């Protein structure tokens, strides 16, 4: 087994623990950068969707996975970002390079306002509140008349950065990849500094977070803000990927899908958001391959995709609550210590009595 | 150096008077112990000092300044850190991360600098880490740095909570039953730790404790309360010899 020796405090603070880890991540980055050389447009577009969903997922991970506030409303923020970006571009002629961050900021401020209101709620109440936000947002956009295009929707202008048109799959792919990597780095930075630790503190024990100086309401709202900024960014990118947006694109079902995504990926980890995005985006493609092998009656029946998705989700909740990333860590460990793997190495030891919590 | 003064403080939960016109003061550099039977209102006194509850009447001052204007998260900025009777750690984080959260008051909210990890951040993180290591060494927690708190044995978790309060560099430390649930050896160890906190770190300790051996060993002054009311105060032996205290422990109503 490989034991990690630390020689400097910086090892715990830096982005990468050691050279091996840095090597692997940089290798992945190189492969991702080189993908346009060996993948055709269809797969590049699929990967673009993965990156965009991962950005929204990272936002939701900050809110739900790290600050512990469950949200069924993430798609509403994605919608606000998509519409803000599209309206700024087409109606006000704002240059793309300004419009996208502006849309993310607008979404963030809406998130902040909602966070101030929802900051006192927990569990079921918070779930219902965020769910209503998803529904209300969809209605508001639908009833927005000419401003939002109503239920007819809005066409999305092309991307133009300083006169360079981003109009081919490989170009949008690289753009999405860049923002995706940026989002990962920001989340990572959040987690290795003071505010990120405050969020985790609030998730695990509000009383003691407070006793150590954390203004709980403030940091809960901050988590909503960051989460919405990420969602808004993803929304802007998603608008371009769809070419045409309608309120239904970002309905309640989409919010639930995003939440399931981080659960399947592995809640409370950055990897979880990314693994989950791959899962959500690529699953329909994989299912369409599987369908070819199935008898016609099953393959063509309408609910097949939802059923498969539901079954897989149920499987995760029952057998692998740590999600895809948790499974990956175990497989990784299995090969590291082969043939000495014991299932018990991941069983939590309980050598003490569970204490009652204050509250 | 500061004085903690609790003056004529009362608090009721519905009809129950949990704290009843209670006054006491803690001298700097001392170990001050609060004893009393179960439900006497000891933890409630801590929660009042930490502003979790608002007293119905009375005042709580630290260093001459009233704490009643502070919000719960501001109490630590007065130099008051605490532990909880039922351990309130950040279960899903590592021991080290728990301690780094303890450094929270020694930083400022600077979102851009954090999100982009600007150069100042690394310096700050190293500074926090050095302080955390000091406390890890002080409490012999070296072996557990990267372990998830939820996986640690009970005694270590208790110590971790104390460590988390210490990295905040408080002037006064409130310990709610530091020895409850510990083995005899661990309790003996706790006595040395408390003495070191007072002697080496110069931190005033206010402690709630049931284990009379530990109380006798480390306390400079003891306060006994029952049903939220003052019973006696003085040295450990004086308080234990007090007839009211003995009556309270023997059968409440008999007094
Ligand atoms: N939040 C609350 N709501 C209602 N009653 C409470 C609350 N907190 C404490 N009490 C009651 O106030 C009284 C004092 O409680 P407290 O926790 O301060 O006792 P204690 O002296 O710490 O006891 P122990 O030794 O068991 O820890 C008890 O009767 C308790 O039931
Ligand atoms: Mg108590």
UniProtKB/TrEMBL annotation, chain A:
Regions crossing the membrane: 21-39, 51-84, 96-117, 123-142, 173-191, 221-246, 258-281, 293-319
Pfam families referenced in this protein's UniProt entry, alphabetically: BPD_transp_2 (PF02653)
Membrane topology: Multi-pass membrane protein
Keywords: Cell membrane, Membrane, Transmembrane, Transmembrane helix
Listed GO MF terms: branched-chain amino acid transmembrane transporter activity
InterPro entries: ABC_transp_permease (IPR001851), LivM-like (IPR043428)
A cellular component annotation (GO) from this entry: plasma membrane
Subcellular location: Cell membrane
Keyword Transmembrane: yes
Protein name: Branched-chain amino acid ABC transporter permease
Automatic annotation (TrEMBL), chain B:
Keyword ATP-binding carried by entry: yes
Gene Ontology annotations for the cellular component aspect, listed alphabetically: plasma membrane
Gene from which this protein is expressed: lptB_5
Enzyme Commission number(s) from the entry: 3.6.3.-
Ranges where the ABC transporter domain occurs: 4-252
Alphabetical keyword list: ATP-binding, Hydrolase, Nucleotide-binding, Transport
MF annotations from Gene Ontology: ATP binding; ATP hydrolysis activity
UniProt-listed Gene3D superfamilies: P-loop containing nucleotide triphosphate hydrolases
InterPro entries: AAA+_ATPase (IPR003593), ABC_AA/LPS_Transport (IPR051120), ABC_transporter-like_ATP-bd (IPR003439), BCA_ABC_TP_C (IPR032823), P-loop_NTPase (IPR027417)
Protein name: Lipopolysaccharide export system ATP-binding protein LptB
Organism: Pelagimonas phthalicica
């Amino acid at each position: 087994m490989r034991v990690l020796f630390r020689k400097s405090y910086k090892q715990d603070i830096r982005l990468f623990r050691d050279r091996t880890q840095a090597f692997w991540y940089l290798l992945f980055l190189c492969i991702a950068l080189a993908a346009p050389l060996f993948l055709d447009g269809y797969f590049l577009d699929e990967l673009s969707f993965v990156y965009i969903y991962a950005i929204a997922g990272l936002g939701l991970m900050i809110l739900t996975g790290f600050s512990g506030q469950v949200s069924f409303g993430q798609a509403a923020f994605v919608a606000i970002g998509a519409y803000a970006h599209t309206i700024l571009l087409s109606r006000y002629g704002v240059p793309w390079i300004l419009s996208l961050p502006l849309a993310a900021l607008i979404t963030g401020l809406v998130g902040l306002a909602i966070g101030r209101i929802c900051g006192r709620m927990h569990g079921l109440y918070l779930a219902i509140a965020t769910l209503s936000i998803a529904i209300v947002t969809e209605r508001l956009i639908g009833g927005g008349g000419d401003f939002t295009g109503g239920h007819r929707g809005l066409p999305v202008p092309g991307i133009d950065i300083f006169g360079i048109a981003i109009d081919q799959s490989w170009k949008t792919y690289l753009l999405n990849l860049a923002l995706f990597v940026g989002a990962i780095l920001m989340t990572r930075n959040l987690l290795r500094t003071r505010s990120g630790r405050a969020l985790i503190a609030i998730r695990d024990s509000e009383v003691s977070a407070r006793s150590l100086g954390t203004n709980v309401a403030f940091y809960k709202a901050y988590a909503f803000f960051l989460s919405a900024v990420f969602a808004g960014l993803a929304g802007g990118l998603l608008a371009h990927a769809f070419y045409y947006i309608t309120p239904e694109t970002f309905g309640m079902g989409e919010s639930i899908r995003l939440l399931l995504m981080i659960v399947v990926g592995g809640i409370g980890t950055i990897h979880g958001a990314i693994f989950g995005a791959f899962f959500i985006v690529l699953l329909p493609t994989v299912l369409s391959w599987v369908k070819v092998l199935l008898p016609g009656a099953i393959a063509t029946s309408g609910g097949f995709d939802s059923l498969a998705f539901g079954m897989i989700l149920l499987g995760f909740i029952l057998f692998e609550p740590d999600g895809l990333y948790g499974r990956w860590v175990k497989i990784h460990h299995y090969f590291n210590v082969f043939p000495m793997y014991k299932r018990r190495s991941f069983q939590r030891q309980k050598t003490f009595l569970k204490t009652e919590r204050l509250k | 150096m500061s004085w903690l003064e609790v003056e004529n403080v009362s608090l009721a939960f519905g009809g129950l008077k949990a704290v009843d016109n209670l006054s006491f003061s803690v001298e700097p550099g001392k170990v001050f112990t609060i004893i009393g039977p179960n439900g006497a209102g000891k933890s409630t006194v801590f929660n009042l000092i930490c502003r979790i509850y608002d007293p119905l009447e009375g005042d709580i001052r630290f260093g001459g300044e009233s704490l009643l204007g502070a919000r719960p998260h501001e109490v630590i900025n007065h130099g008051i850190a605490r532990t909880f009777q039922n351990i309130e750690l950040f279960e899903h984080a590592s021991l080290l991360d728990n301690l780094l959260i303890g450094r929270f008051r020694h930083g400022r909210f600077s979102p851009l600098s954090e999100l982009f990890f600007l150069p100042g951040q690394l310096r700050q993180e190293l500074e926090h880490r050095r302080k955390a290591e000091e406390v890890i060494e002080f409490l012999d927690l070296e072996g557990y740095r990267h372990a998830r708190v939820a996986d640690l044995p009970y005694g270590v978790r208790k110590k971790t909570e104390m460590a988390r309060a210490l990295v905040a560099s408080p002037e006064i430390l409130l310990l709610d039953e530091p020895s409850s649930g510990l083995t005899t050896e661990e309790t003996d160890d706790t006595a040395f730790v408390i003495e070191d906190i007072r002697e080496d770190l110069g931190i005033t300790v206010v402690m709630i404790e049931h284990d009379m051996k530990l109380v006798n060993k480390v306390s400079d002054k003891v306060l006994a309360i029952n049903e939220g009311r003052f019973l006696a105060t003085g040295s450990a032996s004086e308080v234990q010899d007090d007839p009211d205290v003995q009556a309270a422990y023997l059968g409440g109503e008999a007094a």
